């Protein structure tokens, strides 16, 4: 996976960013903490799109990954003026953002998607192209890679663990365990959460869905409650029993979501769901 980065990869990333420093570079040189401020520099003289070379400004960031910014981009003919670049020197511009706040996403979302943007005039123009003779007042699409510092530590894993993609070597009459290390949780609303439960859905090989409880009743089912030991939470089940599979039906895969006993908003659940395909040993 892209985001499993070792120290050697970080060094390579530093070398690559240095090589790109004439077009796009950052402070810090290698961005590993989306929850901290990052300053992004661009050099207009090194762009493939040359329309903005020598442009006196102002310039604005137009960005779409990891998602659209919280304040929006404005419109192509009238950029959001809160996203202005600072003119550092002739044709060198910068903008400083704190990615998780700027985009309103988790650090993991930034790791998964990186930062994609371009610089443009207040009115980006239209027609032609972004060459010196064109009528588009913008740079080409640019990006900043954001990777975690060192190997990505998983906060959710299973026993048996996955062996091939999302598959586990397990029969439906074996014991399956889901483990969650809350000490690695970046979502503030889910840190030190108290009791946690698992919303579970299973599908057999015919595509039929099975649920021990509806979403609204998960917190009332003791079979769905995780066992807590410090910051580690564990949920162990006998799949064919908890999903009450009819005789002759074969379990194919499960979707599991970790949440508080009472769920009012998405702030009461761990982001994302965890999918496991069951395969016989």
Q: Give me the number of helical elements.
A: 4
Question: End-to-end distance, in Å?
Answer: 25 Å
What is the domain tally?
A: 2
How many beta strands in the DSSP annotation?
A: 19
Order of helices and strands: HEEEEEEEHHEEEEEEEEEEHEE
Give the CATH topology of the largest domain.
Immunoglobulin-like
Largest beta-sheet details: 5 strands, mixed
Please tell me about this protein's structure.
- The protein has 281 residues and is mainly beta.
- It folds into two domains: 7-144, Immunoglobulin-like; 156-279, Immunoglobulin-like (Sandwich), CATH 2.60.40.
- 10% of the residues lie in helices and 34% in strands.
- It is built from four helices and 19 strands.
- The longest helix is centred in the first third of the chain and has 13 residues, at 7-19.
Keywords:
single chain; 281 residues; mainly beta; Immunoglobulin-like; 2 domains; 5-stranded mixed beta sheet; 4-stranded antiparallel beta sheet; 4 helices; 19 strands; 10% helix; 34% strand; disordered N terminus
Annotate the secondary structure layout.
Elements: H1 7-19, E1 24-27, E2 38-43, E3 60-65, E4 74-75, E5 78-79, E6 86-89, E7 92-97, H2 99-103, H3 107-113, E8 115-125, E9 136-138, E10 142-144, E11 156-159, E12 167-169, E13 176-181, E14 196-204, E15 209-210, E16 227-229, E17 232-237, H4 239-242, E18 251-260, E19 274-279
Parallel strand pairs: 12-19
Antiparallel strand pairs: 1-2, 2-7, 3-8, 4-5, 6-7, 8-9, 8-10, 11-13, 13-17, 14-15, 14-18, 16-17, 18-19
Question: Short summary of the structure?
Answer:
The chain is mainly beta and 281 residues long. It has helices at residues 7-19, 99-103, 107-113, 239-242, and strands spanning 24-27, 38-43, 60-65, 74-75, 78-79, 86-89, 92-97, 115-125, 136-138, 142-144, 156-159, 167-169, 176-181, 196-204, 209-210, 227-229, 232-237, 251-260, 274-279.
């Amino acid at each position: 996976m892209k985001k499993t980065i070792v120290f050697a990869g970080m060094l390579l990333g530093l070398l690559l960013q240095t090589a790109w420093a004439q077009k796009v570079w950052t402070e810090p040189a290698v961005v590993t903490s989306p929850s901290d401020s990052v300053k992004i520099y661009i050099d207009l003289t090194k762009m493939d799109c040359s329309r903005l070379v020598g442009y006196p400004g102002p310039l604005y960031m137009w960005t779409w990954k990891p998602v659209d910014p919280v304040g929006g981009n404005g419109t192509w003919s009238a950029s959001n003026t809160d996203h202005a670049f600072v003119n550092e020197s002739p044709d060198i511009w910068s903008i400083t953002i704190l990615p998780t706040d700027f985009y309103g996403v988790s650090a993991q979302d930034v790791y998964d998607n990186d930062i994609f943007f371009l610089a443009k005039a207040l009115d980006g123009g239209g027609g032609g192209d972004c060459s010196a003779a064109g009528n588009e007042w913008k740079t080409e699409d640019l990006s900043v890679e954001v990777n975690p510092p060192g190997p990505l530590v998983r906060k959710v894993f299973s026993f048996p663990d996955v062996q091939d993609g999302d598959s586990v070597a397990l029969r439906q009459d074996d014991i399956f365990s889901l483990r969650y290390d809350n000490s690695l949780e970046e979502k503030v609303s889910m840190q030190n959460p108290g009791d946690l439960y698992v919303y579970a859905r299973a599908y057999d090989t015919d595509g039929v869905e099975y649920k021990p409880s509806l979403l609204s009743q998960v917190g009332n089912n003791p079979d769905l409650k995780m066992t807590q030991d410090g910051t580690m939470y564990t949920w162990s089940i006998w799949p064919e029993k908890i999903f009450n599979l009819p005789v002759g039906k074969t379990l194919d895969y499960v979707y599991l979501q970790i949440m508080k006993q009472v769920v009012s908003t998405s702030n009461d659940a761990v982001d994302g769901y965890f999918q496991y395909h069951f395969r016989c040993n």
